[in-house]
Amino acid sequence: MTFKTVLIALVATIALAGCQAKQKQATTGQGTGGAGGQQAVRTTSDRVFFNFDSSELRPDARATIEQWAAMLKDSSDTLTIEGHADERGTREYNLALGARRANSVKNYLVALGIPTSRVRTISYGKERPANGGHNEQAWAENRRGVLIR
């Protein structure tokens, strides 16, 4: 074998090992933690997203919350729903919007059979962005509700 062939085989092996490590991390739920060192729920997602200036649950958010409810029905965990907003708007407005978003998620979980006593809400408004960018993609990622257990 030539040096070039050995080098190509080595690079391919390293690349495959890196892909397997990332895939294992995604399926085991390691990595993203929530506030206070708590672990975020890992199903298809630990968060749902909202449209601009809205606390109405989108169809994709409802589907995710339904998966959460199915998973949570057999446990007695206490949950926290974090409400977040993008950077546009005042601090006060975004705290109120984050609270409405968290309550929308909570109300849907309760409607799906999760006891109200198990679900607490908190709003961070625009204070804890998931994406620090200043464009539509970043803002869309920051308009969210996050489930922490």
Strand order, biggest sheet?
1-4-2-3
Outline the biggest β-sheet. Answer: 4 strands, mixed
Kindly provide the name of the CATH class of the largest domain.
Alpha Beta
Q: What sequence of helices (H) and strands (E) makes up the elements?
A: HEHEHEHE
- What is the CA-based Rg, rounded? 19 Å
Count up the helices: 4
The count of β-strands is 4
Kindly report the CATH topology of the largest domain.
Answer: 60s Ribosomal Protein L30, Chain: A
The residue ranges in which pLDDT falls below 50 over 5 or more consecutive positions are 3-43
Q: What is the helical fraction, as a range of percent? A: 40-55%
General description of the model:
There is one protein chain. The protein has 149 residues and is an alpha+beta fold. The chain folds into 2 domains: 1-31; 32-148, 2-Layer Sandwich (60s Ribosomal Protein L30, Chain: A). The chain has 4 helices and 4 strands. It has a 4-stranded mixed sheet. The longest helix has 26 residues, at 3-28. The chain is elongated. Mean pLDDT is 80; it is low at 3-43.
